Amino acid sequence: MRYSIGEVAKKMDIPTSTLRFYDRKGLLPFVDRDAAGRRSFKDNDLNFLQVIECMKKCGMKIGEIRHFIDLCMAGDITLEERYDLLDQEEQSVVKKIKVLQDQLDFLHYKMWYFKTALEAGTEEVHMTKTAEGERVDPDIHQQYQAALAKCHDIKELIDYQKDYEAKKQTPTQEKTLRQTAQA
Known about the structure:
Layout lengths: L1 E2 L1 H8 L3 H9 L7 E2 L5 E4 H16 L3 H13 L4 H42 L6 E4 L2 E4 L3 H11 L3 H5 L5 H5 L2 H12 L1
Antiparallel strand pairs: 1-3, 2-3, 4-5
């Protein structure tokens, strides 16, 4: 089956301008042209576009992607080189995932820190007195790790229910709210 650039854009959820850019940069040597010079995509071309999109999202540069596409166009003699290139990219992505996971873990720790401070009504729960004044308790990370080890769902550990506005109300305001809700 054949597809126009607009049909491919819709099918792949890629702007037509991106597809044209890819073509200008030499990433689409496999795409045919019809008699009027318009791009005419085949089903297999969609597979190439998936590869290009994946590589782009992995952070590969246009020149690196073009090199890979050129290797594909060269055929079976480049199979090992293509495999090696993907193997290197996998290692790069694994490193990026590790960095992002470390950042996410730290964000979760800080969310727990602030959640517990909000629940206590003060950050003082995490402080200790020293000769230089108050500072964050040096055992705070161990406290977090202990809480993390006991939890089954990280969301339970870090999500703070924002009902603290209701807690701030006076008993008279709470009674009025309850009576209003019951009415």
